[in-house]
Write a structure and sequence with these properties.
The chain is α/β, with parallel strands linked by helices. The protein has two domains: 173 residues, Pectate Lyase C-like (3 Solenoid), CATH 2.160.20.70; 115 residues, Alpha-Beta Plaits, CATH 3.30.70. It has seven helices and 18 strands. The strands form three sheets. Strands 1, 2, 3, 4, 5, 6, 7, 8, 9, 10, 11 and 12 form a twelve-stranded parallel β-sheet that branches. A four-stranded antiparallel β-sheet has the order 14-15-13-16, covered by helices on one side. Strands 17-18 form a two-stranded antiparallel sheet. Helix 4 packs across helix 7. The longest helix has 15 residues. It is globular, with a radius of gyration of 29 Å. The relative contact order is 0.09.
Length: 364
């Protein structure tokens, strides 16, 4: 009898005690995982589809590295003032398009009579006709089953653009805009060409008239372009070229821009620019006897190489380095040394960055 009484009292006590956390009878909130806390993305916010005779766009910060799709648009002005992952443009006709830095590929398919300003890692067209593209592309642009495609060097500025290039993992100095590969060449024909040197960017893609987009402070002035405007594969004006190499430091980019401005003001041409990782064996080939002075600097980061062309380019570059940079303390950094060729037959005037990142040199 004692056992029965004892069991009864225990049962009453259990009845009076609230269930512990996790026991049956208590409603627990659902467990939240990291993916549940992410902001939900509406694909419609990253797409322009079926538009006609409209001006549309996305402001800085509104795309933020997502993928974007533009399709079935006709006679539209389209502006993406932000960085993105990839962008595809399908079945568009008579459109003017600006695309901010794209981390991956920009792919035009079955488009006609479009004019574009594009910055990307990879550029491709397929089944396209009559495109004009002011391009910044880190790898070789590719066209396939396309005709009458014209290319020029990217030329654009707004305050957020430099940071967007970094967010997209793109260097403003790696631009192979004129080194186009045609997958489907036609014998006796040329499916692509370069735009005239005096082509005006604003005639290609006009500044936006939509009030919301006019808030972006745009400039198409060549001197303000985030990407240095290079001559690319256009014919050089002189047999003399000069290579200047800037080693990694706090002001490397600013110094490179300053040197470019100074050389252009003296009527020299900027042929090409590269930002690459240099190996000791590369330094041996380029700097020869002076290589031991520069090899320790390679561990600090990629170098920026600038090729200039014009009679007296070597002497002119050296004078600028001595007069302008040595006289400015903030540019005179031990890790940010500049050197130019002292001979007219410099062995490393073309630098190519292959897909796997290997630095390749070729003599000219």
């Amino acid at each position: 009898m004692g056992c029965l009484f004892s069991k009864k009292r225990k049962t009453e006590k259990e009845r009076q005690t609230p269930p512990a956390s996790g026991e049956a009878g208590e409603q627990q909130p659902p467990k939240l995982y990291s993916w549940d806390k992410r902001e939900k993305i509406d694909p419609k916010d990253y797409m322009f589809n079926g538009l006609k005779n409209e001006t549309v766009g996305r402001l800085p910060g509104k795309v933020a590295g997502q993928q974007f799709v533009i399709q079935d648009c006709e006679n539209c002005n389209i502006y993406i003032f932000d960085h993105s992952a990839t962008i595809t443009i399908d079945d568009c006709t008579s459109c003017r398009i600006f695309l901010g830095p794209v981390k991956g590929s920009v792919f035009f398919r079955n488009c006609r009579d479009c004019k574009c300003i594009v910055a990307c890692q990879q550029f491709r067209t397929r089944d396209c006709r009559k495109l004009e593209v002011f391009l910044s592309c880190a790898t070789q642009p590719i066209i396939e089953s396309s005709a009458n495609i014209k290319f020029g060097c990217f030329q654009f500025y707004y305050p957020e653009l430099a940071f967007q290039f970094k967010d997209a993992g793109l260097s403003i100095f790696n631009n192979t805009w004129s080194n186009v590969h045609d997958f489907t060449p036609v014998s006796g024909e040329n499916n692509w060409s370069l735009l005239p040197e005096d082509a005006v960017v604003q005639d290609c893609v006009p500044l936006p008239t939509l009030e919301e987009l006019k808030a972006v402070r745009i400039s198409t002035d060549a001197s303000k372009s985030i990407v240095p405007i290079t001559r690319g594969q256009r014919q050089k004006i002189s047999e003399e070229s000069c290579l200047a190499v800037l080693f990694a430091g706090d002001y490397t980019t600013a110094n490179a821009r300053k040197l470019i401005d100074e050389m252009l003001s003296r009527s020299f041409l900027l042929v090409q620019t590269k930002e690459v990782s240099m190996k000791p064996e590369d330094a041996q080939r380029i700097f020869r006897g002076k290589a031991p002075d520069f090899i320790p600097l390679l561990d600090k980061g990629p170098v920026i190489a600038l090729e200039f062309n014009g009679d007296g380019a070597v002497e002119g570059c050296q004078l600028i380095i001595n007069d302008v940079f040595n006289g400015t303390k903030k540019l005179q950094l031990p890790e940010d040394l500049l050197r130019a060729s002292k001979t007219r037959t410099f062995p490393w005037l073309s630098v190519k960055l292959l897909y796997h990142g290997k630095l390749v040199t070729e003599n000219k």
